[in-house]
User: Which sequence fits this backbone?
C-alpha cells in the first residue's frame, strides 16, 4: 500500500511544503473573499460556518462603485491599448535598429521609470489643472500610457530579438514588405509575449492607486480610490471594502490565468535548426 | 544569354571589404556554385543578388533588368536558407503557399501548385504538419518546395545542405541535381563543400577574401586551376604544392630536378610553386629507380580500401601520393616520377598560373 502511495507522490515532503506555502501566500485573498460574503454583524467572526450573503455587493451596486469600476476599466483598458499600439512597433524598431544611438534611445525610454512616481505628482497636478485634464479619464490614460510605454517597449524587445531574422528575410523573398512581414510573420511569433505584456500593462494601470487619488476627484475616480472612500468618518465599512476588493481583484486573476497558458507555449520553437 | 549579371560589385561594412569588384555572368538555366571557405564573400554576394544586402558599388542585373536598388520582393527570385527559415506558426502547406498568397494568386491555383510541388518533393503526407514536427531532411524539402512553388526567375540556395548529416546530405545533393535538371531553372548555389560544387555545378565560381579567383566548369577548374589557391582548394586529397626554383628549362628543388612543362618562359632562379595532384605522381618499380625524380620517405600510410594514400617527405617537403591499393607500410622508401605534363606551375609570389 505504502509503495503505491509513494509511487504516486515520490516527492511528498516537497508537495506538502508547497501546499502549505501556497496556503500561506493565498491566505489574505481567501480572507478577503470570505469577508465579502459574511453578514455585517459577523464581519470579523472566526467561525467557518456562516450564512453567505450578497448584501455588501448589493450595497456596492446601489452606490457609486459601479461608476468607478467602469472608470477603471476604461482608463486601464485604453492605456493598455494605446501603449501596445505605440509601444510594440517601437520595440520592434529598437530590436532591429542599426542606427546610431539606438541603445541610448532605449535607455532614455527607461528613464521615465527611474524616478519614484511621487516625484512626478506635483508637476503633473499643476500641469493638469492648467490643461483642464484634472479629474478626467483622458488625463489618467495619458499618465498610465507614459508609464506603460516603457514597460511595453522593454518587455517586447527581447521577444522580437528572439525572432530569427532569417524568417523575415524569407518573408521578404516571398514578397512581403516591411509592414506585411511584421504583421504576418513577426507579430504572430511573439503572441505569447504580446499577451503577457498586455496583461502586465493592464494590471499596472488597473492597480494604480496613487495617481488616481491625486489626479481625480469625482468624475474619473477609479475603483481602488473608491475603496478608500468606504473609510468614513462614522466608521469603516469593512464588508463593502472586502466586496469591492474582491471585484477589483477578479479581472487580474482571470487575466493572469489566461497569460499563464500563453507563456507556457513556446511558439518559436522548431523554426530554425539549432 | 545571362540570367544574372554582376558588374563591378563591391560590398563594404565600414572599413571591412567583404566583396571586391566582382564581375560575373551566370548562364540561363544553369546551376552556378559559389565555392569558397567561410568568410570569402560568397554568401554576401548571394544576399546582394537576393536584395537582402545592399550593394556598396556596382550593378546587379537579373535578365535585362537593373535590380541593384529593388526590394527582394520585386526581383522575382526564390531562396532557400541555410537554416531553412520555415515559418513556425504555419503548416507545411501554408509555408509552401505563403509567397503565392502574398502575391495574390487565387486560392485554387495555390492549392494546385502546392500539391504539385509537394508531390515532386515527397511532402504530400506532411502538408498539415508544422515545422517542429518535421525531421531535418523534411524541413529541407519544405524549404526547397517553398522556393519551387514560386515561378521565380532565379533560385538562390545558401548552403542548403550544411545542416544535414553526411548520409542525408549525399541523398539530398542527388535530389537537388535531379530537381534542377527537371525544372530547368537558373540556380545559384552557395557552398563550402567542394564535392557538392563538383557534383552539382554547371559553372563554379571560386571566391576568396571577397575576390573571384576563377570561374569555370568543374573539370576546367580541376584540370587548370588559375592559381595556387584554387589548386589547393579544389580536389581531394588536395594537390601537392612544392616550393622550387626555375633553373634553365627545369625546376630545381633542394636535391631533385624536374623537367618543366614550359620552354624558356621562366626567369632564371625565379621561385615557383609546383603543383601536382596526388594521383598524378607515379610510383616506380625498383628496377626503374634510375629514372626517378626523387624518393618518397613514407611516414603515414592511409589504406582507404580502393586506394592508398601515402604521405611522406620528398626533397625535404611534404608530398601526398595516391596509388591504387597497395601493401606499402610507413617507413618504406619509394622512387617517384613527377611527369612534366602533369605539373601545374604557379608564380610563388602572386600564385598566378604560369603554364
Assistant:
Amino acid at each position: 500500500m505504502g509503495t503505491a502511495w509513494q509511487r504516486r507522490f515520490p516527492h511528498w515532503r516537497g508537495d506538502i511544503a508547497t501546499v502549505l506555502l501556497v496556503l500561506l501566500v493565498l491566505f489574505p485573498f481567501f480572507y478577503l473573499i470570505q469577508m465579502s460574503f459574511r453578514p455585517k454583524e459577523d464581519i470579523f467572526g472566526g467561525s467557518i460556518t456562516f450564512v453567505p450573503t450578497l448584501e455588501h455587493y448589493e450595497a456596492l451596486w446601489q452606490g457609486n462603485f459601479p461608476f468607478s469600476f467602469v472608470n477603471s476599466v476604461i482608463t486601464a483598458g485604453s492605456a493598455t491599448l494605446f501603449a501596445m499600439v505605440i509601444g510594440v512597433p517601437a520595440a520592434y524598431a529598437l530590436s532591429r535598429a542599426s542606427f546610431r544611438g539606438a541603445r541610448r534611445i532605449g535607455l532614455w525610454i527607461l528613464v521615465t521609470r527611474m524616478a519614484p512616481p511621487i516625484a512626478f505628482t506635483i508637476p503633473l497636478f499643476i500641469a493638469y489643472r492648467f490643461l483642464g485634464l484634472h479629474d478626467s479619464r483622458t488625463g489618467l490614460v495619458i499618465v498610465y500610457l507614459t508609464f506603460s510605454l516603457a514597460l511595453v517597449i522593454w518587455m517586447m524587445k527581447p521577444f522580437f530579438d528572439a525572432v530569427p531574422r532569417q524568417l523575415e528575410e524569407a518573408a521578404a523573398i516571398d514578397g512581403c514588405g516591411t509592414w506585411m512581414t511584421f504583421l504576418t510573420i513577426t507579430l504572430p511569433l511573439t503572441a505569447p509575449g504580446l499577451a503577457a505584456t498586455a496583461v502586465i500593462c493592464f494590471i499596472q494601470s488597473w492597480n494604480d492607486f496613487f495617481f488616481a487619488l491625486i489626479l481625480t476627484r469625482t468624475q474619473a475616480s477609479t475603483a481602488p480610490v473608491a475603496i478608500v472612500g468606504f473609510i468614513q468618518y462614522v466608521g469603516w465599512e469593512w464588508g463593502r471594502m472586502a466586496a469591492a476588493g474582491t471585484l477589483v481583484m477578479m479581472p487580474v486573476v482571470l487575466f493572469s490565468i489566461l497569460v499563464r497558458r500563453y507563456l507556457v507555449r513556446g511558439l518559436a520553437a522548431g523554426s530554425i535548426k539549432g | 544569354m545571362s540570367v544574372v549579371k554582376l558588374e563591378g560589385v563591391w560590398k563594404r561594412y565600414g572599413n571591412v571589404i567583404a566583396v571586391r569588384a566582382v564581375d560575373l555572368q551566370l548562364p540561363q538555366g544553369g546551376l552556378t556554385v559559389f565555392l569558397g571557405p567561410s568568410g570569402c564573400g560568397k554568401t554576401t554576394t548571394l544576399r546582394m543578388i537576393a536584395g537582402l544586402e545592399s550593394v556598396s558599388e556596382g550593378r546587379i542585373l537579373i535578365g535585362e533588368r537593373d535590380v541593384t536598388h529593388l526590394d527582394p520582393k520585386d526581383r522575382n527570385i526564390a531562396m532557400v536558407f541555410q537554416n531553412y527559415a520555415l515559418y513556425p506558426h504555419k503548416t507545411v502547406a501554408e509555408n509552401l503557399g505563403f509567397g503565392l498568397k502574398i502575391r495574390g494568386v487565387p486560392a485554387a491555383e495555390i492549392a494546385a501548385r502546392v500539391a504539385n510541388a509537394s508531390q515532386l518533393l515527397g511532402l504530400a503526407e506532411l502538408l498539415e504538419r508544422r515545422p517542429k514536427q518535421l525531421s531535418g531532411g523534411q524541413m529541407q524539402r519544405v524549404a526547397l518546395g517553398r522556393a519551387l512553388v514560386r515561378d521565380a526567375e532565379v533560385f538562390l540556395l545558401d548552403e542548403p545542405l550544411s545542416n544535414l548529416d553526411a548520409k542525408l546530405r549525399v541523398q539530398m545533393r542527388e535530389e537537388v541535381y535531379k530537381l534542377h535538371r527537371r525544372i530547368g531553372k537558373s540556380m545559384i548555389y552557395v557552398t563550402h563543400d567542394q564535392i557538392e560544387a563538383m557534383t552539382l555545378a554547371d559553372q563554379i565560381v571560386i571566391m576568396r577574401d571577397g575576390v573571384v579567383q576563377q570561374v569555370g566548369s568543374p573539370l576546367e577548374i580541376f584540370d587548370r586551376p588559375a592559381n595556387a589557391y584554387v589548386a589547393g582548394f579544389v580536389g581531394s586529397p588536395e594537390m601537392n604544392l612544392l616550393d622550387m626554383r626555375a633553373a634553365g628549362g627545369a625546376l630545381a628543388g633542394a636535391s631533385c630536378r624536374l623537367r618543366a612543362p614550359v620552354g624558356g618562359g621562366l626567369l632564371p632562379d625565379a621561385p615557383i610553386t609546383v603543383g601536382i595532384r596526388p594521383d598524378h605522381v607515379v610510383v616506380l618499380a625498383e628496377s626503374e629507380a634510375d629514372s626517378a625524380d626523387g624518393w618518397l620517405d613514407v611516414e603515414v600510410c592511409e589504406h582507404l580500401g580502393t586506394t592508398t594514400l601515402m604521405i611522406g617527405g620528398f626533397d625535404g617537403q611534404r608530398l601526398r601520393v595516391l596509388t591504387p591499393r597497395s601493401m606499402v607500410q610507413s617507413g618504406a622508401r619509394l622512387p617517384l616520377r613527377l611527369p612534366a605534363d602533369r605539373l601545374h606551375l604557379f608564380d610563388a609570389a602572386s600564385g598566378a598560373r604560369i603554364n
